[in-house]
Amino acid sequence: MSNSKIISRSRSSSTLLVKPIDSFNPLYGSTSTDTYDDEIERDAQKATAREHSMSIKEALHLHKRAVVWSILISATIIMEGYDQSLIASFYGYPSFQRKYGIPTGDGNYELESRWMSALGCAANIGMFIGVMANGYLAEKWGHRKVIMGALILVMGFVFFTVFAPTIYVLLLGEWFFGLVMGCLSTMGPTYSSEVCPMVLRGYLTAYINMCWAIGQLIAAGVLKSMVENKTDWGYRVPFAVQWVWPIPLFICVYLAPDSPWWLVRKGREADALVAVKRLSADSVHQEACQVVAMIIHTNRLELSRTKHSTSNGIWESVKKCFTVTNVRRTEITCLTFAMQVTCGSQFMYSPSYFWRQAGLSAEYAYQLNVCITGIALVGCGCSWMLMTKFGRRPIYITGSSILLVCLFMEGVLQLAADRNPDVKWVQCGFTMVWVAVYSLSVGPLAYTIAAEIPATRVKSQTLSVARAFYHSLQLMAGIMQPFLINPRSANLKGYTGFVWSFISLPAIVWAFFRLPETKNRTYEELDIMFNMGLPSRQFSEYKFDGNDYS
Questions:
Q1: Where are the domains of the chain?
Q2: What is the DSSP string of 31-95?
Q3: Which domain of life is it from (predicted)?
Q4: DSSP state letter for 538
Q5: How much is the pTM?
Q6: H helices within 241-287, ranges in order?
Q7: Tens of pLDDT along 79-106?
């Protein structure tokens, strides 16, 4: 082909876009710029119509390869869920307390609240740094290379936590581990939302929260099996289990295809076509060209309406999230993840230490912890059915409201628990209700909504900013929660529920007015609605006509 690039004019803007076509234009059998543009737009509309008409059963049959790769890439989150649950549960763990705690005078040991806060914060500080870097790294190098590099580092950093001679070394190990986990934490939602058809997008992004629950369930099982071990290996073995994941995950990620959306952004349309074919059944390979055309068309739409800097620095990649066209989407993504913290997860999701302070033995506390993680796993699966019927927004707002009620009831019940110790069992019951509702709503849907809201060109960066915001809140919550509940500090016990219920109320009010419905919307349609400035509560009712796509 003689011409190496074309200059195309976006039909929705007067902005000129330079687009390389050497590798993709031959698929249409024409070198004409106008013909190429017409073919792209026509095929994009066909792919969009196909997305809307596809049933769940059909999507699973035709795109099972995409489902498998999404599940495997998202499995990296299991490591994060495992480690986060491990540290929170270790605060009441006998062998861990004996190694890093101080004597209480009755033959037992207690971890000081300052070290509880420090250990909880170390990973979040590392994750904050890692996740901010990830937005730049993932966009520059792609998902696969960043994940493989992070998995190699994980294998080395686990040594710090397993063999830490002092709590200072353990703190450093948690920071290193958090740094790597930050690089992995947004990979699952980004990759899954880009490789799967629209009808499966919600399920596979919500599955990420199930990976969290799987990690927590494994942690609960390992902790339960080692709770009677009084030696240092009682806590070392749970840390050492983290060596199990990296090698098999590295092999899977090495074999996985890159995201076709990322490949198009890099001007590699032919590679994007190959990736789309690898992600779909052979019977629909003839439609792969239409899918790539839809990606190109959406990419052009976003380019035409945003001034993107040519700088490739980390700070420049973050600034893209706060342009006029992206700032609203960044706000929604950030606050959606933030509600996972404001709903009281630091208090209710890892309740082993709270139950120990309420009077339960270590054995009972960790048995109930296994039940909690089992409930979370089942709840994540059930959330798929609710999502199909009701969408994202109603479940998210209703679920967060019920969580507020559960938190408030924990505080109310503490009034009675001070006089009647048996009330602690009712408090345990409300904790389980909280976990069930969280796993049906806020937990999984935060990943789904956050993965669907950002513009595709800045999705990695937006998710990185949002997760950094999440980890900054987790950092503050990690400092506050041990102080609220530790017997040597505020010792609020169940009254902590009052604190978190008042924190969660403003977030629920925000969600009512600002959280849009994203169910059954392609990325192009979301781009159009956001560019129109459509109020969030009207997203679910808006009807598109042919002029909207042109």
A1: 61-256+319-538
A2: --HHHHHHHHHHHHHHHHHHHHH--HHHHHHHSHHHHHHHHHHHTTHHHHHHHHHHHHHHTT-HH
A3: Eukaryota
A4: G
A5: 0.83
A6: 246-255, 260-265, 269-278
A7: 888 988 888 778 778 888 888 888 877 7
